[in-house]
Amino acid sequence: MGRLGFFFDMAMCIGCRTCQIACKDKNDLKIGELFRKVKTFETGVYPNPHLYHYSASCNHCAEAKCVKGCPTGALHYAEDGTVQHDKEKCIGCKYCIWNCPYGVPQFIKESGIIGKCDTCLDLREQGQNPACVDACVMRCLEFGDLDELAAKHGSGLVKELPISPLASITQPSLLIKARSYALDSNFRERKV
Nearest CA to 55 among 25, 10, 105? Predict the structure, then answer.
């Protein structure tokens, strides 16, 4: 088995945020804490405006800046290649937050340490999908072997978008079936 990661079909996403809610519920997160975020972006101008949604969580990068910046080893690579967090080793220093170019680790005030997507490791160990994948009503999220996902979904998949650059540096475990206008570097985030 190769590297594990997420596949996201942007063309199918309707921006319902069900994946975000499922993740929040599964991880019992409080207001302001999100391990998966759905954002909406606009590109183009009248008469050719475009809108797309992007569902993002930890990219479980092969060259994760959060892992390299963690002084205690709390953030580490699991045997399956995903980036995991050991709550017992975390001292809440926030170095991972400062190092991650995607803004993924979240400081959890209640516990005094960080938290992040762990690809629902407990569910996966039981042979299930991450909560966000099963919650997606449009089935635009999948998790699995990246080589198998690439073969299944064909060519034209990308790992980097103007809204989340640096793939050449971090090597995210992510495949995106992007809308052509999502590759436009002139974008605006739409606040909802």
Answer: 10
